[in-house]
# Entry
Amino acid sequence: ESGQGDVKKYAKFISRDAAMKRVLKMSKGTPDRERTERLLKDLDWDIGVSQIRFIGNPMAGRVGEARVRAQLPFKLEKGDRITLRYHWSQNPRYQIEDAQGTSFVSLLGNNNLELQYFHRSGVDGGLDSLSSVVGFKVGSQPLNEGSEISFRISNLRLPFLVQSDFDLPIYIEKKGFLELKIPSNGFGIEPSETERISISVPSIVGLDEKFQASLRFEDKYGNLSQSNFFDLDILANGIFKKRFQTEENPAVISDLSFDSAGLNFIEARTGGGGLRAKSNPTLVGPYKERIVWMNFGPRTKISEGVLSESEIDIATQGKYDIVS
# Structure
């Protein structure tokens, strides 16, 4: 029963992971693929998982140390390789020269192994151009099944984008076989502190027409922050309109209107003016046209992005009228 569960789990991973889908597509009908399928079958399709850990609070843009480790599911011989990669949209710029510099990669244990740079196309999905990654080549002393590989990335700056499943994947490159990405447990990147607010309003409305404004509390990178309750002053063209207390993020402010034609603005200010935002301009007049802002075709994990469909919906709330 355990073996059957592993088959289903890893088969699902391969079918859904953008990087592995590319590997399979490009290797269709090759001897390497046939050998790899036989190898995986002998392993009951269980190559384990890698573990990634960030030491410190994993907030967007935070700098700290990350550790990635995995156990080898099979023996590696001379010339076989292990590489530490990254998602194509989030290049940490690994380096192995300056221990005090950013994204310095080293190995924990395995003192006989020497890190070096490799160039790989389509780094973890998405691109065909060659990119630099870090890894090692197995020497005369083989690495046995069950051996632990552990990378340390010092002074790593986490991506600015909040996400639930950040990963620095380990790839096994065995001669005569397809490269295999080891599944990972990943970890979530949280928003940093609230540093700004933004407010969006319709681009065209009629005179005295009721409309809604969308208000977002954001960290300095534009992620929705985990804001506290705020009392806000809402102004239209600099004139006080109402006081509004936020209860969610993003917030919707209803029953707004403009009583003058032409270009108008809405402003929002916290008590004391510590946070303030000015909306996009609204054209007010007897116009039949309406403008809808659309985030068209954002990439999900299945289409080589880093966010799920639901995460994209959440991240863009209050920015767009439609996300498609």
